[in-house]
Specification:
two-stranded antiparallel sheet, 95 residues, single chain, mainly alpha
């Protein structure tokens, strides 16, 4: 799979529900990383950016897209729609 050429930055203008799902996805990624015995440095950086509503780089958006996709595979039903909306936004942004 080819990595998209997008290297800029973007803000995520999220609803409360979307923000909640992104946060849950990042926390799940932190837990998975800890379970492997590694330090979740990238994940903590993304968590901070989500919590502070900061701008994301292209590589951070790609990592966040991966975290969301993994989370949505087993997410509660209430998280699916807002999570898919964020995935769509990220995909359109990094094309």
């Amino acid at each position: 799979m080819t990595t998209p050429a997008y290297n800029g930055s973007a803000e995520l203008d999220l609803t409360h529900a979307e923000s909640w799902v992104v946060h849950a996805a990042v926390l799940a990624a932190i837990e998975r990383t800890l379970d492997t015995g590694q330090k979740p440095m990238q994940e903590h950086t993304l968590r901070e950016k989500v919590e502070e509503n900061e701008t994301f780089t292209g590589s951070e958006l790609r990592r966040l897209r991966q975290m969301l996709a993994t989370y949505l595979e087993s997410a509660p039903e209430r998280d699916v729609e807002p999570g898919e909306a964020v995935l769509g936004y990220i995909r359109r942004t990094i094309q």
